Amino acid sequence: MALRIIVHEPDPVLHQVAKEVTKLTPNIHKLLNDMADTMYHAEGVGLAAPQIGILKRVIVVDVGDEHGLIEMINPVILKAEGEQLGPEGCLSIPGLNGDVRRHQHITVQGLDRHGNTFTVEASDFLARAFQHEIDHLNGILFTEIAESVYEVPREGRKAE
């Protein structure tokens, strides 16, 4: 396991669409391990592979709830309901937060590290984190869809 360098806006990789993972290899397992280590080290709650310069549809999320660390390959939102407006930050855009409108409840499906399909029912902050990370896979940053963007004092930062 190793820490990876998180790329920052305006790196062009953050605006590209990530490619679907078609083979689960030891490199994908290492990527998942490194992404989790990097996310925790940076005190984030989610990380998408493009944020470390890798255009693969891979995310990790841990919002500190009973789900713990969720690793997902090729995530797809199957169902989305309701609406929430709330603050978001991003490890790739340090110092800025924004108020972003997201779905309140979602069902996400993807593969685990062994190629098994699984779904997660997510609400509230977990739903927000999944949507934020999946946006990264599609080259979308929260600043592009936020209703407002504002600077955050260093001590108040928590990023997705």
TrEMBL record:
Entry keywords, A to Z: Hydrolase, Iron, Metal-binding, Protein biosynthesis
Active site positions, chain numbering: 133
Co-factor(s): Fe(2+)
Positions bound to Fe cation: 90, 132, 136
GO biological process, one term: translation
Cofactor stoichiometry and binding remark: Binds 1 Fe(2+) ion.
Recorded catalytic activity of this chain's protein: N-terminal N-formyl-L-methionyl-[peptide] + H2O = N-terminal L-methionyl-[peptide] + formate
Family: Belongs to the polypeptide deformylase family.
HAMAP family found in the cross-reference section: Pep_deformylase
Task of the protein: Removes the formyl group from the N-terminal Met of newly synthesized proteins. Requires at least a dipeptide for an efficient rate of reaction. N-terminal L-methionine is a prerequisite for activity but the enzyme has broad specificity at other positions.
Entry protein name: Peptide deformylase
Species this protein is from: Paenibacillus dendritiformis C454
Gene that this polypeptide is encoded by: def
